[in-house]
């Protein structure tokens, strides 16, 4: 029987959020604070409650991609809300990798303002 991988949903949300530019952080603040509040209250980063917060964060990220025209409106087809947690986890890994390699100036990070 395959062993299920335990994922730290709280850490995934935090590392992605920390790499966002300040404007995007502001747009994603509510789902981020929902996750951090949940973790602070329960200490849970790996079970179903944390998974729900992670899914909300990633679905709102998908919405942001479409609303900012980063992807076409039909990019996710009918699977916008039907994405599995595994699919959203893979997507989060891709987002993290893309944000880490994207060069940003100090001003874009909100520094020296």
Name some characteristics of this structure:
globular; about 110 residues; mainly alpha; about 0% strand
Number of E-type strands: 0
Main sheet record? none
Mean pLDDT: 88
Strand residue content: under 5%
Number of helices: 5
Structurally, how many domains make up the residues?
1
* H-E string: HHHHH
Using only CA atoms, what is the Rg? 15 Å
User: What is the multimeric organization of the chains shown?
Assistant: single chain
- Structural class assignment: mainly alpha
How would you sum up the global shape? globular
Helix content: 55-70%
N- to C-terminal distance: 54 Å
Low-confidence stretches: none
Topology:
Elements: H1 9-19, H2 22-27, H3 29-42, H4 48-67, H5 85-101
Helix pairs in contact: 1-3, 1-4, 1-5, 3-4, 4-5
Task: Give a quick summary of the entry.
The chain has helices at residues 9-19, 22-27, 29-42, 48-67, 85-101.
